[in-house]
Amino acid sequence: MALPLDIDTEPMEARPVAALPSAGQWRYEPKWDGFRCLAFRDGESVELRSKSGQPLGRYFPDVVASLAALPARCFVLDGEIVIPVERRLSFEDLQLRLHPAATRVRKLAAEHPALFVAFDLLVAPDGRRLADVPFEERRGALETFIAEQPRHDAIRLSPSTADRAAALQWLDRLGNDIDGIIAKRADLPYLSGSRDGMQKYKLQRTADCVVGGFRYGRGSALLGSLLLGLYDEEGLLHHVGFTATLPARDKPVLTQRLEALIEPPGFTGRAPGGPSRWSTERTGEWQPLRPELVVEVRYDQVTAGRFRHGTTLLRWRPDKAPRQCGFDQLPQAGEGALSMLDAAPVRRRSRRISGQTTPARNGALPPQR
Hints:
CATH 2.40.50.140; alpha+beta; D-amino Acid Aminotransferase, Chain A, domain 1; elongated; 5-stranded mixed beta sheet; 32% strand; 2 domains
């Protein structure tokens, strides 16, 4: 590709923070629950690269086709690939796309097409390299770029605001559809591979869970992880995830304590199985327990009624009855991410980029004086 930006360019990274920054030239965006992607187009060629630099085009031929259909024949976009199912984003359907069979991928793409949510423009359609100009100017160029393309439902502009309070309200409005809030320095260029100009705030949630089983550590007679469960409205205990953040000094005593509670079935609803996309533990061997113990854990995201990643053990809850540990603790559905992406049309105004005045859209980023 004859672009002024190498196809192996690393995406700009975000530094995790406990609170959104409020001082300085910060702009806020939703942290979309999808796959980060740099999209390169040069003429007829379209390339999608993941955060780790791996090609994504074979898994998202629908996104490739959507980008190839745009009149602009030269650009580099930074964005996120998401898949809406019934107007909500489905991370599970994204993971299903990572399939080796092209026929399976095409079938999934036809059932639930993916969207590309753009939040940065690194190369403009006229071939100008924008990665070196401040984000505020790149955002103006991105809004102009989206405004000049025909309406395309598969290519969306990510909202952006300078209002910190408004950004935090997204977490309440969209529930589990976004993964947090991204803050970007409006006065900095695109810092490839760096965390210096971008921060991410993820809402850390907690839940009280029943310990429905455990696994031994790999090649060990000591406890490796606790298997967590929540009760549904019918009184069935479903496996929802695990925690392995157990102090080594406590494992001998905990192992004895848990072994004294071994009793089938452990989980009366959905039970742990073999390979799981929600856990790095691939063995199907686990020990069922009488549902007597409760722990409080911290988690970041839920997918299909399960904790997507391993949770952090906060404390044991001997004061909590196991039957009080239900799914009602998990985030309730918000209005859906598509409601934000389908927001009212943006407004035109003038932007100055690299010495040129260009029309831009969206009043979300007023120029700083």
